[in-house]
Amino acid sequence: MNVTALSLPVVMPELILSLGALALILIGALRGERSVWLVTELAVALLGVALAVVVFDKRTEGVTFYGAFTNDGFARFMKALALIGSLTSLLLSLDFLRHHRYGGFEFPILMVLSTIGMMMLISASDFIALYLGLELMSLSLYVVAAYRRDDMRSSEAGLKYFVLGALSSGMLLYGMSLMYGFSGTVNFKGVAEALSGHAPVGVVFGLVFIIAGLAFKISAVPFHMWTPDVYEGAPTPVTTFFASAPKMAAMAVIVRIMLTAFPHISTEWRQIVTFVSIASMALGSFAAIGQTNIKRLMAYSSIGHMGFALVGVAAGSVEGAQGVALYMAIYLVMTLGTFAGVLSMRRNGEYVETIADLAGLSRTNPSMAFFLAAMMFSLAGVPPLGGFFAKFYVFAAAMNAGLYGLAVIGVLLSAVGAFYYLRIVKIMYFDEAAQPFDAPKTTQRIVLGLSSAVLILGVFVPAPLTSAALAAAKSLF
User: Fold this and answer.
1) Which residues, at least 6 apart from 442, have a Cβ–Cβ distance to it below 8 Å?
2) Which of 105, 284, 310, 373 has the greatest number of C-beta atoms within 10 Å?
3) Taken in order 301, 302, 307, 313, is the CA torsion positive or negative?
């Protein structure tokens, strides 16, 4: 791939979203509140066009901005996942925002701007580009988290995310400065060449700070403190967005930076990643058991699943990168499907969030209960659903890399985590029926149904996804 100062085809998806976001801001400013739904519909169209370009136009592959921006197979795969997460989250938000009268043309624009940051983050090939993408993504997320200004919980969620996010950015910058000091470059490949021997103590310190800054974005332990409060306090469509698209971008940059910037000092960073992985799996498995709010439970579930995905990162191999890509794709489907079910929990026009509200759902809405049960079984990793194969691939990669202890601990903690997923299934099928929910909206039914179909039927035709994940992983090496 040729390195050029600027190649428009390589940055075409980002260019489409950037110019589109500017146009949406102008429309919103000129038409005011009358433009809310027009801006939202145009934002959906923009994300759809960008997704089509990423998936179908291979001319976008290449390296530009003097090596700072790489759009290889791995970037295209993860960008597609991030765009699917953003697009679905925006579609799921429409009825919720109408119901609560949170309409504002800023909301879809903020989601588009955050998505541009995610795509920049996924393609970053040096520390400067990485930081620009991270901040563009995060600044929009800070505002979105506190979008419900008249709600104390939403304001608290936004403030906590902002304060802790600023702290993590500072840690990340400090780690980057240490790496620049020891390598003399900010480019990932240049750092890899400079750190080809034994890692000095300063490099290890830099690694710790970089991993800490990035671990915050995927809500990995011990940088998970914001996650339960933000998930519970933010509006449910915002929680859906937080749980899906940004996780794709943050995990993608973790894989890229570990495998392309630090391949020769894998012994040092593998110990850190292994600790974070085990701690996240353990907290996600045990802390969710006592939760009564389903959004808070999904926050701890997200922490645990990021720990499982980090098992593949710790492997540091093609199989590990494939496992992470596959895991994130299946995690995205499970998360979007589950939150479509959460948004369907509406009784007498009011949204409810407690797990007890699902009691007897199999008798009041059998199809919704079946689809949600499929989500829960898959999240628990029960075969033959998609969640089982996601964990199988990352554990297999860890075993091939000689990380037998990590794989065994992961399997045991997966069994512990299955308890709270299966408890939801028990409540839906065996408890006394509660008052029935209102009929789900069309978008919610479609997302819930499609997600279940992918998880159930994907086992019969896994080749397209596994092959795409393998090709994406190989492009990193």
Assistant:
1) none
2) 310
3) positive
The answer on pLDDT for 5 being more than 80 is no
DSSP states of 183-234 as a string?
Answer: HS--BHHHHHHHT-SPPPHHHHHHHHHHHHHHHHHTT-TTS-THHHHHHHHS
250: closest CA among 468, 81, 14, 56? Answer: 81
Place of tokens 């530009």: 64
Determine the number of helices (DSSP H) and then strands (DSSP E) in the chain. Answer: 20, 4
Taking the complete model, does pTM exceed 0.90, yes or no?
Answer: yes
- Say how far apart CA 241 and CA 116 lie, in whole Å: 14
Report the run of H or E that residue 331 belongs to, with start and end: helix 318-343
Residues facing residue 124 across a β-bridge: 69
Q: 222-245 pLDDT, tens per residue?
A: 888 888 888 888 888 888 999 999
| 136 close to 120: Cβ distance less than 8 angstroms | yes
Q: Report the amino acid identity of residue 377.
A: F
Radius of gyration of the chain measured on its C-alpha atoms = 21
Rounded CA separation 85/89 (Å)? 6
pLDDT (tens digit, 9 = 90+) per residue, 417-450?
889 899 999 999 998 888 888 888 888 899 999 9
Q: What is the DSSP string of 84-95?
A: HHHHHHHHHHHH
Torsion of CA 188, 193, 199, 205, to 10 degrees: -20
Distance CA 154, CA 409 (A): 36
Mark out the alpha helices in 257-317 (DSSP H runs).
266-287, 294-315
How many angstroms separate the Cα of 258 from the Cα of each of 64, 210, 273, 320, 366? 21, 10, 10, 12, 45
Q: How far is CA 380 from the centre of its chain?
A: 18
> pLDDT value at position 43?
92
